[in-house]
Every structure is written in structure tokens, then in C-alpha cells.
What we know:
Blueprint: H1 2-16, E1 19-21, E2 27-28, E3 39-44, E4 47-52, H2 53-62, E5 70-73, E6 86-89, H3 91-106, H4 117-129, H5 134-140, H6 145-152, H7 166-173, H8 179-186, H9 190-195
Antiparallel strand pairs: 1-2, 3-4, 5-6
Amino acid sequence: MDNYMEHFDRIKKQFEKHIISKEDCWITDLYRNHKGYGQFNLKVKLKRTRMNASRVSFMIYNGEIAEGMFVCHKCDNPPCVNPEHLFLGTHQENMSDMVAKGRSNKGSKNPHSKLTEKEVFQIKVLLLETNLSAERLSILFDVSPRTIAYIKKNYIWKHVSSVVSPKTVDRNIDRNIDRKNDEEWQQLNLLDLLAN
Length: 196
Ligand SMILES: [Zn+2]
């Protein structure tokens, strides 16, 4: 335990050196990946690894991240590492959150605009894997509830498969995370790293 605390303090100090602003959102000078997430380099027992800074911040200030949980931003500001702005979400919550935010960023679409295949896929996955109502989905995707109902009943967009594995969901939905680099780190905890 002493050993762990020693590492923990070192990592915490190392991390805090990178925080350059603590006004509301905490901003770091860390390199950001193309999605805007700061990348924190961690060196533990000669092992080098890179983690999303928000994930590291959560572990330092808020505690462990249960297996399979995602660190999400209340503030919708990817580089932010303010632990008070971070919360844990399940994969589903993360997906819904992202779809919602993706919507709000884009602003309102033309009411007559057509859905894309990708959006239909997202709707099908959300229908399948979340409790979001057709009404709520219609708001998120700026279409009528009837369109959602038709998609659900497979009257329209039949060719878009709703049979998805978690992998497919990741590939298609999870745009918020630099998948290639993060996938293997998703399950990792600071404690695990220190234990190795
Ligand atoms: Zn923030």
C-alpha cells in the first residue's frame, strides 16, 4: 500500500504539472488527440502508457473506475479535466449522451431533412439497447415520432441492420473516443497499472 501511495503521489504531481488553468473547466497543456482529449503519458515500472487525461483525472480525484465504465463530460468540453465535471457512464449512457450532444452541436436540422444510414443505424441501436422512447429519439434526430416508429417496425430502412455486436456499436457510434488507442485502455485502472 505504501508503495502504491508513493506511485500515486508521483502520478498526481506529474499530472498536476500539466494543469494550466482551473477556471471552471480545468485545461491542461497536454497533447490532444483528434477528438480533443488530452493524452497523459504514464510511466509505471518501466511500462509506458498513454491515457485520456480526463480518465486519469477521474481516477486521481474521484476514485476508481469500475470495469466497463466510461468517463464522460458534463461540460461537453473534451480537454477539460475538472473532476467535478466528470462522471461515469455506462456504454449505453455514453452512447445516448454522445448522440444527444452530437445533435445539439449541429443545431436543428431541416424538419424535412432525410436521415442518413448511419443515423438510422444509431436509432436502431438506441432502440435496441436503451430505454429512450420514440418521442425522445425523434427529438434527438429531428424527425417525427412516426418515422422512429416506422424504423422500429422495420417498415422503412429495412436494409440497415439492427443486429449489432458491441464491437460494431463501438465502430459506428462511439465517435467521442479515440477508439484505436483507447480500446485497450478502457478497462485499465491506475491500480491495475501499478500492480503490474
Ligand atoms: Zn469542464
